[in-house]
């Protein structure tokens, strides 16, 4: 069969049962795996053979689901992590260490900003944050001799700024480093960043991929196209011998297609252990099977809600890339022609107090520290997910004090709009 389309991949990629085997991906709920001899297991520890010996590193259920996400993104290798936050950390830490530097878009999720600006800074990794709409000169000026990566979000959470992936990829490659893109909000149904020059894609699978708020998780996918060996001095962890595995050089042993993910599994998962349970991977796969059906509905509902809010007299402003006139509409037309996501950001006239009154008046939508699942939910980021930021950092991230993040579910749009109207009447 020729290359399967995304709707088919959602159901069939990553796992093909043999004769008499389970039609669904089985849950291998086991910490360990049995071998006949120590020599057989030893070959796994030496990375001489592929296989499973301890679920802290790898598990068959997890790997089948990772392979499905890899196929959806068009990558060469992938791994699951226990959360999207773990995926963000691993994706950068796999190629950075104390004394290194990363360029990042400032319009990113508050938890990721805190990870980069506080926690990883304490580890000796420095970050420079640039506006996603910065000039070519400003972007180039952010690089240093010790820069090892560029990071951004396809659609920023919650600012909804669309990353100009091609422009950021050009800048990254001109300085010999990869572009890492968080594709959580768009999903591979609406955007495949590798097609635009990105090198590594990550996801919080907790969101649309799981789709039902059942299981926290993350994923990292490698395009297999970035030439680590062409910049060997920048990436010694991939291009020089790893003494903890008897001197294996990942790029030599596993090629450009497998080096990055193998190192992340063999080193980071071995030492830090942010592995999802096989049960959670199973839940994730259930969500993936309908991802191609749910994303259009999320986008349709979001556009309808954005249009409703845009025309409401009590609403001060609305951000949604699918709206004509939105600052990122042109970029959305380029990178997200079939729809962006199901999230709308807006402000109610009257500021933070009015936002709180509006949210308290909702009945269908839940106030929840979540986004991008089947049920509509709402959040005030400045007092929750981005609470750790000061006013200047909030402004750089595109988060105003009155910003309300509305995540449209897949309910009937008329019921959603009625809920919004009722809540606005109370403001």
TrEMBL record:
For this protein, the record's InterPro entries field holds: Cys/Met-Metab_PyrdxlP-dep_enz, OAc-hSer/O-AcSer_sulfhydrylase, PyrdxlP-dep_Trfase, PyrdxlP-dep_Trfase_major, PyrdxlP-dep_Trfase_small
- A GO molecular-function term, please? cysteine synthase activity
Which co-factors does it depend on?
pyridoxal 5'-phosphate
PTM annotation (N6-(pyridoxal phosphate)lysine): residues: 207
GO biological process annotations for this chain's record? cysteine biosynthetic process from serine; L-homocysteine biosynthetic process; transsulfuration
Superkingdom of the organism of origin: Bacteria
- Where in this chain does the entry annotate a coiled-coil region? none
Q: Which UniProt keywords apply?
A: Pyridoxal phosphate, Transferase
Give the matching SUPFAM superfamilies: PLP-dependent transferases
Q: What's an example GO cellular component term for this entry?
A: cytoplasm
The entry sums up its family as follows:
Belongs to the trans-sulfuration enzymes family.
Q: Which PANTHER family match?
A: HOMOCYSTEINE/CYSTEINE SYNTHASE (PTHR43797), O-ACETYLHOMOSERINE SULFHYDRYLASE (PTHR43797:SF3)
Q: What is this protein called?
A: PLP-dependent transferase
């Amino acid at each position: 069969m020729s290359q399967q389309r995304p709707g088919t991949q959602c159901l069939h990629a990553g796992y093909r049962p043999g004769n008499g085997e389970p039609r669904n991906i089985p849950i291998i709920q086991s910490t360990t795996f049995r071998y006949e001899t120590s020599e057989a297991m030893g070959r796994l520890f030496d990375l001489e053979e592929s296989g499973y010996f301890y679920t802290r590193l790898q598990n068959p259920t997890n790997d089948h689901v990772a392979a499905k996400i890899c196929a959806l993104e068009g990558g060469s290798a992938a791994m699951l992590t226990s959360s999207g936050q773990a995926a963000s950390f691993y994706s950068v830490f796999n190629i950075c260490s104390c004394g290194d530097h990363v360029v990042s878009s400032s319009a990113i999720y508050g938890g990721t900003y805190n990870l980069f600006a506080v926690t990883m800074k304490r580890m000796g990794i420095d970050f420079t944050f640039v506006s996603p709409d910065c000039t070519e000169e400003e972007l180039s000026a952010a690089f240093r001799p010790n820069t090892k990566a560029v990071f951004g979000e396809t659609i920023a959470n919650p600012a909804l700024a669309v990353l100009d992936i091609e422009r950021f990829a050009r800048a990254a490659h001109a300085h010999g480093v990869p572009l890492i893109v968080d594709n959580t909000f768009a999903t591979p149904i609406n955007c495949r960043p590798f097609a635009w020059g990105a090198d590594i894609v990550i996801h919080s699978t907790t969101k649309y991929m799981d789709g039902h708020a059942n299981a926290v998780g993350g994923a990292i996918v490698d395009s297999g196209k970035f030439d680590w060996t062409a910049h060997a001095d920048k990436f010694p962890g991939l291009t020089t011998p790893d003494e903890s595995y008897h001197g294996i050089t990942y790029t030599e042993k596993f090629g450009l297609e497998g080096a990055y993910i193998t190192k992340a599994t063999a080193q980071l998962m071995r030492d830090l252990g942010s592995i999802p349970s096989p049960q959670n991977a199973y839940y994730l796969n259930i969500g993936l099977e309908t991802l191609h059906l749910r994303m259009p509905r999320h986008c349709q509902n979001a556009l309808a809600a954005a249009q409703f809010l845009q025309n409401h007299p009590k609403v001060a402003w609305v951000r949604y890339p699918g709206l004509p006139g939105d600052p990122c509409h042109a970029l959305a037309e380029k990178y997200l022609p079939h729809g962006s996501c199901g999230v709308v950001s807006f402000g109610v006239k009257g500021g933070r107090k009015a936002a709180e009154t509006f949210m308290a008046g909702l009945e269908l939508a839940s106030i929840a520290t979540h986004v991008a699942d089947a049920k509509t939910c709402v959040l005030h980021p400045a007092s929750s997910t981005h609470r750790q930021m000061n006013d200047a950092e909030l402004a750089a991230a595109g988060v105003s004090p009155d910003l309300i993040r509305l995540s449209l579910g897949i309910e009937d749009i008329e019921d959603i709009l009625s809920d919004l109207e009722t809540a606005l009447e109370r403001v």
